[in-house]
Structures are given as structure tokens and as C-alpha cells.
Amino acid sequence: MRGLVFTGVGEMEIRDFPDPTPGPGEVVVDIKCTSLCGSDLHNLHNPNLNRDLIMGHEGAGIVSAVGDGITTVKIGDRVALYHIIGCGKCRNCMSGYVQFCTTDRRALAGIEHGTDAEKCLVREANCLPLPDDISYAVGAFIGCFAGTSYSAMRKLNPNGQSVVAVFGLGPVGLAGVAFAKAFGARVIGIDGIAERLDLGLKMGCDEVVDFREANTVKALKELTGGAGPDCIYESSGSMVAQKQALEAAAVHGRICMVGFNGPMSLKTDQAPSLYTMIGKELTLMGSSIMPRQYHYDIIDLIRKQNIDLEAMVTHRFGFDQIIDAVRLFDSGRTGKVVIDL
Ligand SMILES: [Zn+2]
Ligand SMILES: [Zn+2]
Q1: 52 CA to middle of ligand 2, Å?
Q2: Which ligand neighbours the alpha carbon of 97 most closely?
Q3: Residue 35's domain is classified under what CATH number?
Q4: In angstroms, what is the span from residue 71 Cα to ligand 2's centroid?
Q5: What CATH number is attached to the domain comprising 277?
Q6: Distance 8 CA to ligand 1 centre (A)
Q7: Which among 257, 286, 315 is the end of a domain?
Q8: Same domain, 6 and 135
Q9: Number of neighbours of residue 234 by Cβ within 10 angstroms
């Protein structure tokens, strides 16, 4: 089988690997879709990456082989992949919070081979059942960034009286826009790239703010009658945006941050001040991926509210073009980029 490896900083290669054989408790999935994620780009530019590992962690496909002791999936099943592999036995794994496994936490494209390949070896517990009416692409999304966005939106818990400001209109932000709309909120998106502002409107933003042209905090206050948004979803990882989120939030506002953006080198006067949090009695939350059981809730919401997560896909490629796809995605000017196999 073929798989994508990052051979150096900014360098890639499609390599041949032996087809995986499932051991006890393991499953081989023939990948039908793998989607590119911001963290793939962090890997692409990481000088300390494992150069032998297949990249990609957002995947979905068909089970093609099972090892001994598998009871919940069978050959031919459609599955989405949850990309974190836990021990299955610690307190966090047992409650579905596999991403916080304390004893043996691994990740696809982190310690194990990933989904940018024709086949992927996972544990049974990584297979999320994918109903026929949910596409492989959406399945791949749920296992990572869409699950992240949904889990954060559950924490913010907006309703029809809420204004949700979404900082950053990359895929993580765009899924946040779709879910905030599905929860009934008015949504304001913030970004500085024209293509992403357009995608924000397409995914359901009622208004967008271009931070190249407007003072973001002032604009958010003006759009909310001076009060500021009561819910803020920060997906960019920019420390400037984190500071603006605290400044713009309404009194008693709730802020959920999910963005990481590598090392920061900002002056201290640009760093967020938590005094703002005290002064406005804000609730500041972080959110990391999703508990595995949200898979069902996300599918329910997608069906009930007719959410089209694939509307954020701007480019689709075959596996042969995956290197071009990663280069294009690295430009930062695309929506979601998907590889169909
Ligand atoms: Zn991802
Ligand atoms: Zn565990």
C-alpha cells in the first residue's frame, strides 16, 4: 500500500509500505477519504518529526480485515476513525474521554501510522460506526476537527438569544459557525483572508469582520449594541485574537478556546490579561478534541439541522495528488481540502 510521509521540513514523499495485518483487537480500514488538518501543517514544518510515519489523522473508510477478538465491527462496515488511541482501561478512557488517556495515549500520525494511506491499522475502539447517509468525508471530519468544534460548542451552549463570535474561519472555525447556527445563535465570524470570510458567510455567519480593515473589538461591540458577544469561540490560536476575545466579550460572557498556533513571540502588552476575565466575570474554557461518544450526538445534529459540513470543502484530490494538495492547503487560502480514495 502507499502512504504519505514528511521526509523533511516542508518535504514529502509517497512511499510503499507492506499492507498491515491486524493483531488481536486490531482492525484494518481501507481508507476512502482522508482530509487535511491544520495539525498536518504543524507536522510538515516540525524539524523533529518522525520521518518514517505515515501522516494524516482524519480518515474514514471500509473495514477490510479484523484480528482476533473483534466483536463490534466486521469486514465491510463503513467507519469513521477516532484518531486518538487510549489504553481503554484508565478512568478517562472508560468514560469516553480517550483524548485524556493517562497511561498509553497514542495518536494516528503521532505514534501510529496515519490515514494518508490506502490502508490504516487501528484498534476496534477507534472505529466509529458511519451510517450510509453520512459521507466518508463528513465521517473523517467528525473524528477530528468537527468533533473539536462540536465539543467546544456544547461547552459554550449558545441558544437563540446568543451571539457567538467565531475567531478564525479555517475549518475548525467554520465547523463552529455551522454548529453555532444549528444551536440557534446569531454568528459573527472574524478572519483576515478574503476566501475564508466568504466561506464563513457560506457556512452560516450572519456577519463577518475583516480584521485587516476593522478594529475587531470595536466592530464586535458595534454589532452587538455595545454589549459584546456573549459567546466566543476562539479557533485561531493567535494570542492577539485571544486578547481580543477577552476584551470583546460581554459581561458574564463565555469564551471557549481550541486554537493552538505554535510558539508565540509577542510583546507582553499583546498577551491576554486575565484581569479582564475577573472584571467581567467571564467564564474561560479550553476544549480538546471530543469525548468519543459525541459521535452519535454530532450525527443526530447534522441530520436534524441538515448541516452540510462538506460545504466548506474547496478542493478535492485523488491520492496521487496528495503532495500538491498539502502544498495548496499550506498556503492558508483554502477551505477544507479532501483526498478521496
Ligand atoms: Zn485534525
Ligand atoms: Zn486510557
Answers
A1: 26
A2: 2
A3: 3.90.180.10
A4: 20
A5: 3.40.50.720
A6: 20
A7: 286
A8: yes
A9: 29
| Ligand closest to the CA atom of residue 87 | 2
Q: Nearest CA to 85 among 109, 51, 49?
A: 109
Q: What is the pLDDT of residue 262?
A: 57
Neighbouring-strand partners of residue 210:
191
Mean pLDDT of 30-35: 98
Q: What is the mean pLDDT of residues 171-184?
A: 97
| Interatomic CA distance for residues 292 and 125, integer angstroms | 9
The answer on pLDDT for 264 being more than 80 is no
Q: Are residues 40 and 83 in the same domain?
A: yes
Radius of gyration of the chain from its Cα atoms, rounded to whole angstroms = 20
| CA 234 – ligand 2 centroid, Å | 28
Comparing 322 with 281, the larger pLDDT belongs to 322
308 Cα–ligand 2 center, Å = 33
CA angle 43–45–148, rounded 5-degree value? 40
Instruction: Average the pLDDT over 72-92 and give the result.
Output: 94
Q: How many domains does the chain have?
A: 2
Q: Are residues 272 and 329 in the same domain?
A: no
Report the separation in Å between the CA atom of 98 and the middle of ligand 2, taken as the mean of its atom positions.
6
Give the number of whichever ligand sits closest to the CA of residue 98: 2
Give the structural domain span for 219.
Answer: 147-286
Q: How confident is the model at residue 266 (pLDDT cuts 50, 70, 90)?
A: low
Are 93 and 61 within one domain?
Answer: yes
Is the Cα dihedral 171, 41, 285, 302 positive or negative?
Answer: positive
pTM of this structure: 0.94
Over the stretch 242-252, which tens digit does the pLDDT of each residue have? 999 999 999 99
CB neighbours (10 Å) of residue 317? 18
What does the pLDDT look like over 284-334, one tens digit per residue?
A: 999 999 999 999 999 999 999 999 999 999 999 999 999 999 999 998 889
- Quick one: 317 and 214 in the same domain? no
Query: Which amino acid, residue 165?
Result: A
Q: Quick one: 167 and 204 in the same domain?
A: yes
Identify whether residues 209 and 279 lie together within a single domain: yes
